[in-house]
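wait is this the right file?? whatever heres the structure
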């Protein structure tokens, strides 16, 4: 259970309830970070706008490069919710999710390309404290992905660090998106009526 329980729909304002419906239609269930941030509706709006804009703008890199770097951050930080949700997004993008089992051995696993290994290593270097990125590493990435690609990769890695660390601090754990058996983010002991906010399935995702 999250350290701060999500706002149930019966306690949410009209905007939040509409936002819940939109999220559930897209993902099959309301993402728990979404429900927790709903305690601060203005930040919910800011987060939704920023996430949507970042998603629409991030089109330079191939999806497999961008998503594997983001996944590596979630795995490294230890955000089980991000790992769970990220697995679903990669599945919906038609990517090979079986390769995620080898993420700990990416440097030697034949499931990863050289470009993917370079992106994962960069994710590790950016996520380290202090940051361990080198000039040579960035130049190698520029040679592979171009300047815009490196900017996009850096932005997405930084964004996932924000998500993963925020979710981990708030105690938000895996919700079942990767298995299509999502738990309701505001349910505690007894089932809560969620028909108004629950979608049909996650096939309407991006």
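ok assuming it is, sequence goes like this
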């Amino acid at each position: 259970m999250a350290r701060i329980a999500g706002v149930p729909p019966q306690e949410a304002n009209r905007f939040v309830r509409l936002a819940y419906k939109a999220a559930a239609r897209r993902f099959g269930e309301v993402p728990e970070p979404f429900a927790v941030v709903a305690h601060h509706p203005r930040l919910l709006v800011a987060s939704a706008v920023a996430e949507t804009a970042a998603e629409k703008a991030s089109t330079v890199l191939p999806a497999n490069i961008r998503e594997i770097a983001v996944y590596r951050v979630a795995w490294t930080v230890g955000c089980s919710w991000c790992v769970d949700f990220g697995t679903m997004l990669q599945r919906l993008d038609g990517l090979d999710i079986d390769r995620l089992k080898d993420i700990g051995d990416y440097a030697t696993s034949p499931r990863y390309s050289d470009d993917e290994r370079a992106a994962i290593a960069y994710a590790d270097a950016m996520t380290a404290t202090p940051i361990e990125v080198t000039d040579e590493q960035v130049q190698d990435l520029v040679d592979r992905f171009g300047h815009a690609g490196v900017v996009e990769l850096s932005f997405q890695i930084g964004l996932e660090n924000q998500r993963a660390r925020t979710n981990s601090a708030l105690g938000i754990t895996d919700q079942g998106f990767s298995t299509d058996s999502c738990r309701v983010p505001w349910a505690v002991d007894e089932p809560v009526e969620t028909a108004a906010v629950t979608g049909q399935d996650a096939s309407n995702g991006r």
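The radius of gyration is 18 Å. so i think its the right one actually
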